[in-house]
Design brief:
By secondary structure, the protein is mostly beta strands. The protein is built from 1 helix and 52 strands. About 0% of the residues lie in helices and about 35% in strands. A hairpin with a 5-residue loop joins strand 38 and strand 39.
Length: about 725
């Protein structure tokens, strides 16, 4: 029998005080101090010194500095959105609290717009609830949750992401927003029926918004209509304003590039930045996601405000490079000599590609940014992918990798990978760079003159993460039962870190690989375990608080060889068996158990289940077999004489969601009460087939949305010996 837990009384107080324990920053092995993902950056246009800078972060909200151009060691940022009244339960607002900022922009007069919802295409690109607007430089904020489209009603921003804002220079109250998809919003089905992606315009500096109309010739692609009529809309991945041409330009996924004089009416550009962006491959379609054959998945735009030139770079849904293109304004007497913008000049972009026969730009769906900076009569282009590239347009745009964080050079610049945001000033030559690990700065326009990959590269960047607070994404954490100040945490792409008894300072990074599950043996706190890479990769250290990066280097203690080279989610679940903590339970597409301290004796005999659903083949098939997303164990300890059957007798496994690797069995919970005799042929019971006895709104179905079962907890005090659990 399954019972919806929401019907039970909530005994824990929501007003209990919490105290931050860190990490403030992480002292990384390769890049100095790191903080967390910076997704957007804006320099206050009224501060010509470049000291006033705003950051949008994924999960950490908006931060502001008033000395960002000062000495690197003294630069500090202050969080502006940690305690917003609009997200308070007493605010009377239906807004979902979201501190995931996809885009940030500052206008003269201190107006700040922060679009909530991360548009980068990752499972941790968290969704938003609208636009945060401040009229006073971030002192106070209001949340704008929807557009106001007259007779056609309201169109919501719930569950979406913001890719950018662009302000007109001819009308300082006119601003356009590019509203895109948030991957996590899709995974958890957060967008509501009235949520619509696309282009939105405001004529009152962001106080109110209305949906724009997008057209391909006579065919309307998007326009304000009634509830549900836009079918989710079209994802706008970039928007800019060209002050010379006095027009807006935008990239729209699966459709192409568009222009507008007023932000209200948009038409498809005749000269698209890619030879494959034809109407045959990108046919107009109303209110739908567009054609899968259209090679526009993510587009980035930049404008040189002095020359009037516009630049675009695009990748398709497989990250294949569609080229770096330039529209030449041909500035003369303050006007462009070419009447219409047209991307006819292709610049070389092969340096961005994976090579070896692949034209893909690695991770471009996740990190692709573009900036254009005036430099006398020249334009400097900066392109952020995994690394930061720079070129001089006048010199033919020979792209130079300035950071080399992801190749054999060994990151000589000391800048972490995955570049999401670039903000620049031409005078002084300031560049701010935001990536997965935080914030860096260049005060010379990254003017590297030495040989590529030389030690001199480090002199062109400064690490500003010491001035940022905690932005870490905590995937998991563990606490020493004898010393509450000793913690270890898995931080996803930023590895794993340990507090080493001092949780309020920078935590040392103890592994640079993908930081997933971590654990401290409750019966022997000297035994620390952590994930050192994606997939099954568990490393043990037996020195407790003295464990360092050297202890977690090398091949995993328990890895793919011990678990049949099974496929899994990126951070596969594993737990130390609560009944016998010397054993570890691991979930792939099946469940395994064995000794945690050594993988020598592991074999196929360590399997405790068949694949939990789908065809019973020897290898996990990610298209048919659900991946395990969570584990729990309970019941009395059993010593069965074999490691795999010793420990907890009752086991539970939750599966990934419909869009996360759960397949047909997405969001199910499986169990066995006979783990003491289980083997590779043991078929577990699917609890999702049981009726939910107190959830009448869903006709008694368990998890009808088929979402991830991200966590399971078995009640250790339950009299049924492990038969009661929470999900």
């Amino acid at each position: 029998m399954v019972e919806a837990d929401s019907a039970r009384p909530q005994l824990s107080s929501l007003s209990a005080a919490w105290q931050a324990v860190g990490p403030g920053q992480v002292a990384s092995l390769a890049y100095g101090k790191i903080s967390g993902r910076v997704s957007s950056i804006a320099i206050d246009p009224e501060d010509v010194t470049g000291n006033t800078v705003y950051l949008g972060t994924t999960g950490g909200g908006v931060w502001r500095s008033s000395n960002a151009a000062g000495p690197a060691g003294s630069v500090s940022f202050t969080p502006l959105t940690d305690n917003l009244p609009v997200f308070s339960g007493n605010a009377g607002s239906s807004g979902t609290a979201s501190l995931s900022i996809g885009a940030i922009s500052v206008q003269t007069g201190g107006i700040v717009l922060a679009g909530t919802g991360d548009p980068n295409d990752a499972s941790d690109s968290y969704y938003g609830s609208g636009i945060l607007r401040s009229p006073d430089g971030g002192l106070t904020w209001t949340l704008i949750q929807n557009s106001q489209d007259g007779a056609t009603g309201l169109h919501s921003f719930t569950g979406l992401g913001f890719a950018g804002f662009a302000w007109s220079t001819t009308n300082p109250s006119l601003v356009v927003a590019a509203v895109s998809q948030s991957a996590e919003g899709v995974i958890v089905n957060d967008p509501i029926q009235s949520s619509v992606m696309g282009l939105y315009v405001s004529n009152d500096a962001g106080l109110t918004w209305r949906m724009a109309t997008i057209s391909d010739g006579s065919q309307v692609v998007q326009t304000p209509i009634g509830l549900g009529g836009n079918a989710g809309g079209v994802a706008a991945t970039a928007v800019v304003w060209n002050p010379v041409r006095q027009r807006f330009y935008a990239a729209v996924r699966a459709h192409g590039y568009y222009e507008s004089r007023d932000g209200v009416s948009w038409t498809r550009m005749a000269g698209q930045p890619g030879t494959a962006m034809t109407l045959q491959r990108c046919p107009p379609s109303f209110g739908a996601g567009g054609s899968s054959s259209c090679p526009v998945f993510r587009g980035a735009l930049a404008v040189d405000p002095n020359s009037g030139d516009t630049f675009a770079i695009t990748t398709d849904r497989d990250n294949v490079d569609q080229g770096l293109w330039q529209d030449r304004c041909g500035l003369s007497a303050g006007r462009c000599t070419s009447a219409e913008a047209s991307f006819v000049n292709r610049l070389a972009s092969t340096a961005l590609e994976a090579g070896s026969g692949s034209a893909a730009i690695p991770q471009a769906d996740y990190n692709l940014s573009l900036a254009a900076v005036s430099s006398g009569s020249d334009t400097l282009l900066f392109i952020g992918t995994n690394d930061l590239y720079r070129c001089s347009v006048a010199a033919g745009c020979l792209l130079r990798n300035t950071t080399n964080a992801t190749n054999a050079c060994g990151a000589p610049a000391g800048v972490a990978p995955a570049q999401h945001a670039i903000a620049t000033l031409s005078a002084p030559s300031l560049l701010f760079l935001g990536n997965d690990s935080g914030l860096w700065r260049s005060t010379d326009g990254v003017h590297e003159q030495g040989s590529p990959c030389s030690a001199d590269d480090a002199s062109h960047f400064e690490n500003l993460n010491a001035g940022l607070g905690s932005l870490a994404e905590i995937v998991s954490f563990a606490q020493d039962p004898e010393n509450p100040s000793a913690l270890i945490a898995g931080l996803g792409t930023n590895g794993s870190a340990s507090s080493s008894g001092n949780p309020t300072t920078s935590w040392p990074q103890v592994s640079a690989g993908e930081g997933g599950t971590v654990a401290i043996d409750p019966n022997n706190p000297l035994l620390w375990y952590l994930s050192t890479a994606g997939g099954v990769s568990i490393r043990e250290c037996s020195r407790g608080e003295d464990c360092s990066a050297a202890d977690f280097a090398g091949p995993p203690t328990i890895g793919a060889a011990q678990t049949g080279v099974d496929a899994s989610v990126i951070d596969p679940p594993w737990i130390l068996d609560p009944a016998m903590s010397a054993n570890v339970l691991i979930g792939t597409c099946r469940v395994w158990r064995g000794a945690a301290a050594s993988g020598i004796l592991w074999s196929s005999a360590n399997q405790l289940s068949t694949t939990l659903g789908g065809p019973q083949n020897s290898a996990c098939d990610p298209t048919t077999n659900p991946f395990v997303r969570s584990l729990a164990a309970a019941g009395s300890a059993v010593n069965a004489g074999t490691v795999q059957n010793s420990g907890s007798k009752v086991l539970y496994a939750g599966t990934a969601g419909a869009l996360d690797g759960g397949g047909v069995f997405a969001g199910h919970v499986f169990t066995t009460a006979s783990a003491d005799v289980a083997s590779a042929t043991t078929k577990w019971t699917d609890l999702a087939a049981s009726p939910v006895t107190n959830d009448f709104s869903n006709s008694g179905r368990f998890n009808p949305g088929r979402f991830d079962v991200a966590s399971l907890a078995a009640d250790p005090h339950d009299a049924t010996d492990g038969r009661s659990m929470r999900r």
